[in-house]
Amino acid sequence: MFQIGENIIYPMHGAGIIKAVEEKEILGEKQQCYIIKMSVGNMQITIPMDKILSSSIRPVTDIIELKHILHIFQHGESDEVLPWRQRYKVNTDKVKTGKILECAEVVRDLMRMKEEKALNTSEKEMLNNTHQFLISELGLIKGITENQIKSFC
């Protein structure tokens, strides 16, 4: 599916690069695994090839999809205001999908809320982490301008 040197996006972790494919022993069974170096947090992840689909790892978004996401980020309506615990769960579920649009919506909504009132500690952390994941992917999209990246800041 993925090639060594290919950039990928891993939900809840952001952008990474496939560094190697190695045989590892997992639960007494030898399996081919991707070795992924994450750009955020200086972390390395090992994932068996047969688990790659269930992990929701995906290729980097292209510039065409980004233009749609940029429009939604700037002009889209925020979700209805929920109590913070429900909002936190909804936002966590969005981030876990690994989809750039879902992450952009979380960042947009939390940034808008932050302008109106202080976020609680959990939401501040979610905003910072999700924003960092989003920026890590934006930096890998071919054809993106610096101004487009700044519009997400």
The tally of beta strands, per DSSP, is 5
- Please identify, by name, the CATH architecture of the largest domain: Up-down Bundle
What is the highest CATH level, the class of the largest domain?
Answer: Mainly Alpha
Distance between the termini: 32 Å
Protein name: Transcriptional regulator, similar to M. xanthus CarD
Domain CarD-like/TRCF RNAP-interacting: 1-111
Pfam family, one: CarD_C
InterPro entries: CarD-like/TRCF_RID, CarD-like/TRCF_RID_sf, CarD-like_C, CarD-like_regulator, CarD_C
Description:
Residues 1-111 form the CarD-like/TRCF RNAP-interacting domain. This is Transcriptional regulator, similar to M. xanthus CarD. Pfam families: CarD_C, CarD_TRCF_RID. The chain has 153 residues and is an alpha+beta fold. It folds into 2 domains: 6-59, Beta Barrel (Thrombin, subunit H), CATH 2.40.10; 63-151, Methane Monooxygenase Hydroxylase, Chain G, domain 1. The chain has 5 helices and 5 strands; from the N terminus they run E-E-E-E-E-H-H-H-H-H. The protein has helices at residues 63-75, 84-97, 100-116, 121-138, 146-150, and strands at residues 7-10, 14-26, 29-38, 44-48, 58-59. A 5-stranded antiparallel sheet has the order 4-3-2-1-5. Helix 2 runs antiparallel to helix 3.
